[in-house]
Amino acid sequence: MNFKKLIKSFSFAFKGLISLLKSENNFQFHFATMILVIACGFVFKITQTDWYIILILFALVFSAEAFNTGLEKLCDFVHPEHHQKIGIIKDIAAAGVLIVATVAAIIGLLIFYPKVF
Question: 0.85 cut: is pTM over it?
Fold first, then answer.
């Protein structure tokens, strides 16, 4: 195993993560939501299992958002001017994020609702 290449790969991944945090509004929204949910988790003393579920959901939402952003940027690079089929591709990728984020929000409500009310 070449550790130099491995470290370089991680540096590229972190560079992408920083790029998402700096430039993508939806990623920033999800990040802020994550901070709020973590704070609520401590305030309402959620169970260890709930923490596992929430962490998995964070990973799913952030991964979906990263794939969506990457696909959108690739589409814009390949076809900079508006094209109907590119628009459909981008809409479908965004729908994937919407599905994951909606399910995450519903599960979040199922976890926190009984603790709040």
Answer: yes
Q: What is the pLDDT of residues 70-116, one digit of tens each?
A: 999 999 999 999 999 999 999 999 999 999 999 999 999 999 999 98
DSSP H helices in 24-83: 25-43, 48-78
Q: What is the mean pLDDT of the chain?
A: 96
Which residue carries 């003393």 as its tokens? 45
**Contact by Cβ (8 Å): 27, 21:** yes
Q: Which two tokens stand for residue 36?
A: 């709020």
pLDDT of residue 64 exceeding 90: yes
> What does the CA dihedral 46, 51, 53, 56 come to, rounded to 10 degrees?
150
> Which residues, 6+ apart, have CB-to-CB distance to 97 below 8 Å?
26, 61, 64, 65, 68
The residue extents of the domains of the chain are 16-116
Residue with token string 């709930």: 50
User: What is the token pair recorded at 41?
Assistant: 């988790």
Residue range 16-116 forms a domain whose CATH class is mainly alpha
